[in-house]
């Protein structure tokens, strides 16, 4: 880097949600670099500790964080931090959220209750967020209005429905967060 060049501005986004909803998958789908993943295999020690209801085929779990990067322009880089989903690792969210501009809550309509902690986390810290409903294999059991009511979402919180494995949907989720942040900035301005 020459003296006339400056480092790009960095934006941090936190991706949260319950166990097995697709946080690692979203980071991997949109990151321009191979994401850093801290996944480990589930073992017998997690029996009775981790609730595998609705995620019976899951054999790994994030134990620290997921990390990805998106270069928007030479002046702007977005860093994505995915949180671990199990309650025993939630203490890490307090460190991961430091410096985050906004957040994403990923939810699964088959287990919406696993999203409550993530929504509460963002709301209690006044961190703007969007909700992405991950439709595993096109499976969605509720309408947007039913989801909004079940999650007790404020009307201004964007809600998107799609498949986090698909890069275009991941892009749309992040763009919705940027639009949401900009609208809040204009409203506060």
TrEMBL record:
Signal peptide: none annotated. Keywords: GTP-binding, Hydrolase, Nucleotide-binding. CDD domains: Ras_like_GTPase. The keyword GTP-binding applies. The keyword Chaperone does not apply. InterPro entries: Gliding_Motility_GTPase (IPR052705), Gpn (IPR004130), P-loop_NTPase (IPR027417). Gene3D superfamilies: P-loop containing nucleotide triphosphate hydrolases. It comes from the Bacteria. Belongs to the GPN-loop GTPase family. This is ATP/GTP-binding protein. It comes from Streptomyces pulveraceus.
